Amino acid sequence: MTAQIIDGKAFAATVRGKVAEHVTRLKADHGITPGLAVVLVGEDPASQVYVRSKGKMTVEVGMNSYEHKLPAETSEAELLALIDQLNTDPAVHGILVQLPLPGHLNEDLVINSIDPAKDVDGFHISNVGLLATGQKAMVPCTPLGCLMMLRDYHGSLSGLNAVVIGRSNIVGKPMAQLLLRDSCTVTIAHSRTRDIEEVVRRADIVVAAVGRPEMVKGGWIKPGATIIDVGINRIDAPEKGEGKTRLVGDCDFASCAEVAGAITPVPGGVGPMTIACLLANTLTACSRANGLAEPEGLTA
Ligand code: NDP
């Protein structure tokens, strides 16, 4: 069997298109423009790239983008003061603090100082609790993107066996909560899981969020299963020339695609969905803040 490729790049473009349509309507019917504020502390090169690309896509869907670039030595008090100001700014509907923060800043404290209604990353402790109890939450972008792709491919997820590999707060745990909400039978595997291959082999849906290049092999996969590969790992690629690298996922694409029914590639799978879902979350936050209906198909 050769798996169907779930094209995250194309899917993300569709999601951004839907967001843009909603934004146009919000402006025309209500005079409201959703606004996303992104806060970057320090000069981490990868973070700078992410922030630039988030800003560009925010503007492309017709939203306002507010970038706050602060020096690495910014104090906690200064950062909290900025967040406080953004929390009360009616033009700002979403606030994202780019992680990781420099070591002297307490990430939990900073994230939990964001107004939960504007917490478009879904990392605030209130949103974690709301998601876990099945209430209306802001849902972390990467798991939300995975859920959208799974719903699109399967329709209903009810009753399917799902194995999430990885238990991080930003991917594994919220992913498991979302799958549970959609009535999957969910197992979370992690570094201490015994017989992980056997556990994964029972899954109709495998979500791999581990950070280990090509760890999941085709032999672990139940024939016909759906694989969502969240991992982004840079490895050496001597075949491309000296010193060259390439990106791979947590799943060994070639062997997994032989067995699975569907699989997301890396790159071009989950990655593009993450920013698309950030925009979707900003739209959702703006709609909720103005007492308007939430955009259909763009929330959990
Ligand atoms: P973390 O490092 O926070 O978590 C990794 C998880 O994998 C942990 O729960 C760990 O278990 C588990 N793990 C590690 N080794 C093994 C193993 N040998 N067998 C089973 N489980 C193992 O990573 P993140 O969740 O933040 O990210 C995971 C991957 O997803 C990374 O490659 C990251 O780059 C990528 N990512 C991609 C995004 C996107 O937009 N596409 C967004 C976010 C992340 P334990 O808890 O026991 O240590």
UniProtKB/TrEMBL annotation:
Database matches in SUPFAM superfamilies: Aminoacid dehydrogenase-like, N-terminal domain, NAD(P)-binding Rossmann-fold domains
Pathway: One-carbon metabolism; tetrahydrofolate interconversion
PROSITE patterns in the record: THF_DHG_CYH_1, THF_DHG_CYH_2
Keywords: Amino-acid biosynthesis, Histidine biosynthesis, Hydrolase, Methionine biosynthesis, Multifunctional enzyme, NADP, One-carbon metabolism, Oxidoreductase, Purine biosynthesis
Main function: Catalyzes the oxidation of 5,10-methylenetetrahydrofolate to 5,10-methenyltetrahydrofolate and then the hydrolysis of 5,10-methenyltetrahydrofolate to 10-formyltetrahydrofolate.
GO MF entries: methenyltetrahydrofolate cyclohydrolase activity; methylenetetrahydrofolate dehydrogenase (NADP+) activity
One Pfam family cited in the UniProt record for this chain: THF_DHG_CYH
Enzyme Commission number(s): 1.5.1.5, 3.5.4.9
Residues reported in the UniProt entry to bind NADP(+): 166-168, 232
Subunit: Homodimer.
Keyword Transcription: no
Record gene name: folD
InterPro entries, sorted: Aminoacid_DH-like_N_sf (IPR046346), NAD(P)-bd_dom_sf (IPR036291), THF_DH/CycHdrlase (IPR000672), THF_DH/CycHdrlase_cat_dom (IPR020630), THF_DH/CycHdrlase_CS (IPR020867), THF_DH/CycHdrlase_NAD-bd_dom (IPR020631)
Name assigned to this protein: Bifunctional protein FolD
Domain Tetrahydrofolate dehydrogenase/cyclohydrolase NAD(P)-binding: 140-288
Entry's family note: Belongs to the tetrahydrofolate dehydrogenase/cyclohydrolase family.
Catalytic activity line of the entry: (6R)-5,10-methenyltetrahydrofolate + H2O = (6R)-10-formyltetrahydrofolate + H(+); (6R)-5,10-methylene-5,6,7,8-tetrahydrofolate + NADP(+) = (6R)-5,10-methenyltetrahydrofolate + NADPH
